[in-house]
Specification:
Elements lengths: L1 H8 L3 E3 L6 E3 L48 E2 L1 H11 L4 H6 L2 H9 L1 H4 L1 H11 L5 E2 L1
């Protein structure tokens, strides 16, 4: 009992507002319950003024999105019919402008018809028109 009166008489103590325990006067957190009893003192630092001058007026000038200047436009259905009826002769490859592959198809009967089947399936799923 004497300890409590001595601690209470001391000017360097205060009471916790949450649990009522006697704690040092300069403490921010109660040593008994662990809750914050005092606001932290923060020095008010002057915030820098941030000025954003965004004068970006750039515009996108891509002109080659749909023009496909590097490829030649070919009709999907013409190539598909050529592949179906004359694929073993490489007619669809000659139509696309692939002369070397056309000669290879001509000499091997369309890569033994396996190449014709693969080309027919790939031509089916190409967009119309497609670019070679």
């Amino acid at each position: 009992m004497e300890n409590q009166t001595n601690v209470q008489n001391n000017t360097n103590t205060k009471f916790c507002m949450h649990c009522g325990a006697v704690i040092p006067a300069d403490s921010v957190i109660c040593t008994k319950c662990g809750r914050q009893v005092q606001e932290l003192k923060q020095e008010k630092l002057s915030q820098p003024n941030i000025i954003i001058n965004n004068d970006n007026i750039n515009t996108n000038t891509n002109t080659n999105i749909n023009s496909n200047a590097n490829g030649r436009c070919k009709n999907k259905w013409v190539a598909l019919v050529l592949c179906l009826f004359l694929g073993f002769l490489g007619a669809h490859k000659f139509y696309e402008g692939k002369i070397g592959m056309g000669i290879l198809y001509l000499c091997t009967c369309g890569l033994f018809f396996i190449g014709v089947i693969i080309d027919f399936i790939t031509l089916l799923f190409k967009p119309n028109p497609y670019y070679v």
